[in-house]
Amino acid sequence: MKLSPSPMLFRRTKIVATIGPASRSREVIQQMLAAGMNVARLNFSHGDYKDHAETIALLRQVANAEATPLTLLQDLQGPKIRVGQLPQGSIELVEGEQVHLVPLTEEETQGIGIDYPYLAEEAQPGMQVLLDDGLLELVVEAVEGNRVTCRVVQGGTLKSRKGVNLPDLNLRLPSLTDKDKQDIQFGIEQGVDIISLSFVRRAEDLWELREYLAAHGASDMPVLAKIEKPQAVENLSAILGVADAIMVARGDLGVEMRVEKVPLLQKQIIRECNYRSIPVITATQMLESMIHNPRPTRAEASDVANAILDGTDAVMLSGESAVGAFPVQAVKMLARIAADVEPHLEFDNMPAYRNDETHALGEALTTITQILDLRAIACFTETGYTATIASGERVKPMIVAFTDRPRVYHWMNLLWGVKPILLETLPLTFEGMIAVAENQLKERQMATEGDKILILGGIPAQTPQGTNFIKIHTISA
């Protein structure tokens, strides 16, 4: 049975929800869509291909049945360093005691196995080693052969396969692991919409991903860079020159760098993305307490609200929707916070990032919307470029973006303030675009007689990044 549309249909801020054991059923996915989920994140650090294929098929089935756009984000595991398999599955690290870190091949007899072969070669006395998302801390005291002797600074229970962070090292690891490459091929075959690269350190990491996608027939696949390493922060400008989208991955970023630096970095990254009209997702621990509780803490609600005030395109749920007890309630809570915050948003009008016609028209959008009471902005796009620039202007009217390309349709579903509509074919004439915009908006009850709308498009049609006109139009009877 088709669910009634969400009252948050025209919410500007998008919601990304990670799919996991708690949300992999048809009923929960339907409820999350109705609550406001726009993007489903598939975490390839967990699960096998059979599980992922079944999940992707189910997500597509439900979205099609609900006639609702749902974007599939494939999140690659990346070069994550992990602890090996421990005896009895865990060991207790006691503050002040010594432990030994060794390559995985020597773990049973020598100490705790780590799957980073260069640790002994690169480690220096005084270097920090963080385990299990920074909950456990070691400091290097000595290196002998392949064995790195550490003192426990912050103890606790260490379980098998937990993550290892080495903030002081510029790791000699490939940006794309063999597992990532296999996962990418699987994602292309399954028709995912966006691929997210983990632990990006430099722009070249993204170029490698783009080259791999092109070699496998997916050169038009949007790529997202996760900012979670100090090197990524240092190389942010170059990374933004290659990435289609950005994720402020506050979890590992807050482990690799001092946690007090993360709030300001979040604001700086979002602002730079807004300036360049690059969509940005704010992620990790947004409603962490809702893994176990039906309501978030006041601090979490403030955190989400501040990310929206900063200008984030989307807010993301991780464990809250993947393994939490209240996945639907968590989506509803993000939607409710956005509904309360968005009427009060006031963004600075930044200068155009590029001197091209689309950016110039984007600047005009801001001025026109400040003078005229517009019902909507309609744009026609082959690549999503026009909608991306319009979204970056952060105008108050909703942006209705028309395309005839499914991949572009799903891409635009991530963009702030954009409602994508998939057409069988795009109109080829100026008059045709006006007619389609008017008819579609009236049919969908997005506009009525007498409403003013703006129309953006390009003539000749079907020219990538060829937007060259803007038309003020009044809806007829």
CATH superfamily of the largest domain, called what? Phosphoenolpyruvate-binding domains
Distance between the termini: 34 Å
Largest sheet: 8 strands, parallel, barrel
What topology, given as strand order, has the largest sheet? 1-2-3-13-14-15-16-17
User: What is the third-level CATH name, the topology of the largest domain?
Assistant: TIM Barrel
- Class from helix and strand fractions: alpha/beta
- What would you report as the Rg, rounded to the nearest angstrom? 24 Å
Strand content: 15-25%
The overall pLDDT, averaged over residues, is 93
Strand tally: 22
- Please, how many helices? 17
Count of the domains: 3
Query: Architecture of the largest domain, according to CATH?
Result: Alpha-Beta Barrel
Oligomer type: single chain
Uncertain regions spanning at least 5 consecutive residues: 1-9
GO molecular function: ATP binding; kinase activity; magnesium ion binding; potassium ion binding; pyruvate kinase activity
Protein name: Pyruvate kinase
Domain Pyruvate kinase C-terminal: 360-473
EC number: 2.7.1.40
Summarize, please:
The protein has helices at about 25-35, 50-65, 105-110, 120, 180-190, 205-215, 230-235, 235-240, 250-255, 260-275, 300-310, 320, 325-340, 355-370, 385-390, 405-410, 430-445, and strands spanning about 15-20, 40-45, 70-75, 80, 90-95, 100-105, 110-115, 130, 135-145, 145-155, 155-160, 165, 195, 225, 245-250, 280-285, 315, 375-380, 400-405, 420, 450-455, 470-475. With about 475 residues, the protein is an alpha/beta fold.
